[in-house]
What does this fold into?
Amino acid sequence: MPMTSPSLPGLSIRSGQGDYQVDFPADLTQLLAQLESFTKVVVLVDENVAKIYGSQLSPLLERSPWMSIPATEDEKTLRGVQRVLDFLQQNNATKQTVVIALGGGVIQDIATFSAHLYYRGLRWVYVPTTLLGMCDSCIGAKCGINLNNFKNQLGVFHSPHWVLICLPFLETLSDTEIVSGYGEILKLLLTGSTEQFALLREFVDAGGLRNPQLSRLIYESLKVKKEIIEEDEYELNLRRILNYGHTFGHALEAITHHGIPHGKAVAWGMDLVNYIAVERGILDRAEYDSIHAFIQKHFAHRLTRPVSAVELIEGSRRDKKVVDGKVNLILLRTAGELKITPTTYDAQLQDEVERYLAEKHVLSWP
It folds into this structure.
């Protein structure tokens, strides 16, 4: 399905570090024309994007120093950041240099972290090339890189100077990458309202995951996140609800050595905490069943081995949301209403996770 950005107005994001704009160039020609406004740039590009779109991006790459980066969790580390900092130094980057990052979340995190450190902060422009990057991570300023085997333990807040979302990049994404992006769309639209979740189900039921209304779903997701981050940019209170599904999702990613795509792990993490919410009388069972059916249909995943409640709980102890020995689980009351719930690591929690796993919800294994 050819993708364009028809009639999508820009979004202006308020930030304490400087407001920025999200725009939707219709195609790569328009994208490149918009990037011509910067005279001194360096480019960081996902190596797969460079292979697929190298010739189309040549007007940008031929006039600028550029670095190809593998989009792997191993690269999203201090070693990967060091390589980018060396590249900036070797190419005489100054405070006037603009970093242009083309890629998904891994490239975004590396670029954000590096731009924040170099000369105490360079302007950077983000061109997300994955659905996950377009619908969620492109706004909000937050980045994280991995430390040892633990995900996103180092991070900064560094707002982009501009975000340019060019939907044609989605045409070459694998089905796995599309599904992963939908994990964050699901999270944001459930965070938004009952009506927005209903819209998601309607569009996907009618046209599949690559449905003609995907641009609308991206836009609705960004509107939900915009409202939250403008109220709480630095995750002191309200923004913590955007971690819905992430505590156990990140634990699952670590246990499987990133063998499950991020968005699928988040969707599974949402299903698990929704189950806990039902068990604790917070979420109505009928609503859980409705959401679970959607997750089961679109995010089911087969692992190479089973995971245990003990592994998941121990993995979650490394989460940034753990305070005073309690984990702040984000539990759904109903679509559009989430509850930040300090939860003790006790026999009740372990029993709930064990019972969930015993039913083999969403995950399966040989």
